[in-house]
Amino acid sequence: MFDYKLLAALAAVVEQAGFERGAQVLGVSQSAISQRIKLLEARIGQPVLVRATPPTPTDIGRRLLNHVQQVRLLERDLQSQVPALDEEGMPERLRIALNADSLATWWAEAVSDFCAEQHLLLDLVVEDQTVGLKRMRAGEVAACICASERPVAGARSLLLGAMRYRALASPAFIARHFPGGVRADLVARTPALVFGPDDFLQHRYLASLGVEGGFEHHLCPSSEGFMRLVEAGLGWGLVPELQVHDQLERGVLVELLPDKPIDVPLYWHHWRSGGQLLGMLTEHLARATGQWLVPLE
Amino acid sequence: MFDYKLLAALAAVVEQAGFERGAQVLGVSQSAISQRIKLLEARIGQPVLVRATPPTPTDIGRRLLNHVQQVRLLERDLQSQVPALDEEGMPERLRIALNADSLATWWAEAVSDFCAEQHLLLDLVVEDQTVGLKRMRAGEVAACICASERPVAGARSLLLGAMRYRALASPAFIARHFPGGVRADLVARTPALVFGPDDFLQHRYLASLGVEGGFEHHLCPSSEGFMRLVEAGLGWGLVPELQVHDQLERGVLVELLPDKPIDVPLYWHHWRSGGQLLGMLTEHLARATGQWLVPLE
Q1: Structural domains in chain A?
Q2: Could you read off the pLDDT of B115-126 as tens digits, one per residue?
Q3: A154 to chain B nearest CA, in Å?
Q4: What is the crossing angle of helices A223-231 and B223-231, to 10°?
Q5: CA pseudo-torsion sign A177, A183, A186, A191
Q6: How many other C-beta atoms can be found within 10 angstroms of the C-beta atom of residue B110?
Q7: Which ranges carry the HTH lysR-type domain (chains A, B) (predicted)?
């Protein structure tokens, strides 16, 4: 068997993004955790961590973390079958990466009953899609919600549905920038909002209007902040329909051009040998998410 | 004079979190940008970057970035005085780090008119307070909003006011966990919500009730997601009052124990030689934020 004390040290340092915090979580000293990682490296004969801020796993480190994650999930199952092994009534914990817009809209409602019934604690990580999958590959999360279908090795992906986005702005923004009415060719000359460097929704929208090339934009990597900036009239941007039912009804936000939504698929990536609880959560999501997501065309 | 082509390469790689994207932003090849950084290191005689994912600056790299940031701010001023230097009507851009809760609540409304009048684009970075200040020190942002007062060298800090947080839960959560009424000693035995490893608000709240030690909690690093999880009854947590006026009025959320708020001060950190636009924004915020923030006692 592997020495899991060493592997747990590696996992703690990576998951807590530092030696000090990793040591705190394990309840050992920083020099103890650092010793364990050196010992692990001595046994394997190569480094498992890049000592940067935060420390990142090497390729072999990543493979070890992936293994740790899977063992943890299997341990959970065993504990439910062998209650004596279980620390009295301790709740389960699942680490899940998801996109900010899901977390800002349907996620809480979709999982609340499940968490209460299963006494499950969530450790949520907000990531854009590419990084979410990287964290799966690195074994840092048990599951991940993202827009790309292709699962990492050892995992499965399940289509949950699509989130519908609409290009919105405030009435004041529209009055200021489009006094003669909104025209597709003028949209690219007004400031847009973009979530971050990996957010190409606004580019896709402009492309669908036949507009290519760059455009002025604010960067705002927060779902709620993004919506607030649109409401306050700083720019136009693509916002999940789920987040703005109320604002659209009240006329606080308006669609730039009528009925031109963009649908983004959401896939649930989960480890194949992820254990019972993860399997149950997967089934639960497959049943429940249709309430909030639209079918992918 | 320094060779700013080399410094700009360093800044692009750090700000874009990678060589590839850094090269894209500068419109050069990846090998060109990598050459420039090697040349910079050869001239200085030591590494400026740790080649991890993402690349992080070394100590000397950080000092260089700080310098680049300040030069950029000064260039902005010069452009407004020497219009010929200015690329025709190009909007200004300020990179600002702020806490997620400010962005989710008062920030957009506070700056929208200023941005429209000054033709200012925002490049917002969401960070908890300690990391926000690190980004100031690294010269990656022009300003930062955080809870700690002490400015980094070369910068000033200005108290904007305090955000008021209240410990909230859904009526269903309270009915399930506190059938006999909410009692301080029982709160620590119900699941809490915590924003991330640096969020000690829930700990402070429990301490104010005389409860010490650990407690079950979900982790949710998103303001909007945090509120949604509280609404959906997954746990109790401290939420900015500004964010939930409506929910408190409608009774969708209730305060755990009557009138026990926690106030968190917010400081505006900005470079002393940050240029005119940053100075104007500072004055604007000093005047405007009283509408949303409470005086610090």
Answers
A1: 163-264 (3.40.190.10)
A2: 998 888 898 999
A3: 24
A4: 100
A5: positive
A6: 20
A7: 2-58
